[in-house]
Task: structure prediction
Amino acid sequence: MIFEQGQRIVFIGDSITDCGRRDSAAPYGNGYMSLVQAFVTAGRPELGLSWVNRGVSGDTVRDLAARWQEDVVEQRPDWLSVKIGINDVWRFFENRHGEAVPIDEYETTLRGLLAIAIEQTGCRLILADPYLIESDRDDPQYAMTADYAAVVARLAKDFGGLHVPVQAAFDRALASTTPADWADDRIHPNLAGHAVIARAFLDVIG
Result:
């Protein structure tokens, strides 16, 4: 287990992290973050960990930049989990090019935000892949998402953080299933899909 007594773990990201945490499923949402919190708490209740969900549906890395001070720095995390990039890619395929984030901007922005978080809070990082639940490796959105996931893996290495290979977890699941078994739109998972993500996290954090 990577967490220590009394530590604070902050999760930030888009709708996959949000999952109703601001309304009907407050405060953790009803997705992977709540599953991770529940299993870690059940396994190590004596640690007295505190958990914060700062996911916001629809966010790209640009949106994270706009709220980084309030939702990350001021939260004073010991561990910061960041899962962002799905919308940065998806907007290209929704013909919303002005809202899409090119990969160079994605990497530069995310790198800068992570540096700020470490400098101002001393936190350690858990960085999770953007993903597409798709069996066809030649699908253009899958291929582009893989490039953004490679950025995440590189940033985790550069900052000495932990990398959660979410795309690989779904790829393994798809060896014997179809994308529709996990999500209606290849993006927003059902509960079993969120469990795939949560298991990938648990494998990394111990």
Q: What stands out?
A: Residues 72 and 205 are 20 Å apart (CA to CA).
